[in-house]
Amino acid sequence: MTSMRARFLGRWILLVSIGEATGFAVAAAVAVLTIVWGTPEPWRLLLIVVAGAVEGAALATGQYAAMAARRPRRALWIGATAGAAALAWLIGMLPSTLGLDLDPAAAIPLLVVGGLVLLATIPVAQWLALRREGARRWVPVTMGAWSVAVLWTAAPSPLVDEASPVWLIATLYVIAGMLMAVTVASLTATTAWSLFGAPAVARHRP
């Protein structure tokens, strides 16, 4: 059992990290290029949201490949995750796209609520795709994992500015995306084992 669990955890961390890192690289590249090319709104927003869907599909593909048991339907899992990721990017991009200028008293509650909704998009969509008893814990675990992982996306900001070359910006964000991917994969691995890897006997053991 121990070796089976170790193999699952290693496979989950590897494949989910590859999937999310690849997807985020696509989304980040599109976001940077729309700035470099001066893409006008709403086309910039549309391109980034579509790239976000690609990120979600890549993440879900990595997760699905890592699952060892009780897999949900592939199309449902990938489609739900892709749609949720697109929604997350839309939520994240709307304030800057709309040019909202709110006073701090109104901005702080909106940021908190918006942040929670953003963090919940993917895990809630995946939970609905699972439709399984005991899968509800996937939501808080995944939200917690993403709340830690997204901090990596802020890491490049102090190192770049408007004068920074595109290659440097892209490199730093790819590295940040890889670290984010490994963080999400690592923090969700144990719960993923209980949902998609543990044998039936182990799952029902008191």
What fraction of residues sit in β-strands?
under 5%
Give unreliable regions as ranges. 201-206
Give me the count of strands: 0
Structural class assignment: mainly alpha
Main beta-sheet annotation: none
Q: Helix segment count?
A: 7
H/E topology pattern: HHHHHHH
**Rg (C-alpha, Å):** 18 Å
Helical amount: over 70%
End-to-end separation? 16 Å
Task: Please state the overall shape, judged from the principal axes of the Cα atoms.
Answer: globular
Average residue pLDDT? 89
Q: What's the domain count?
A: 1
Please, could you describe this protein's structure?
- The protein has 206 residues and is mainly alpha-helical.
- Helices cover 77% and strands 0% of the residues.
- It is globular.
- It starts with a helix and ends with a helix.
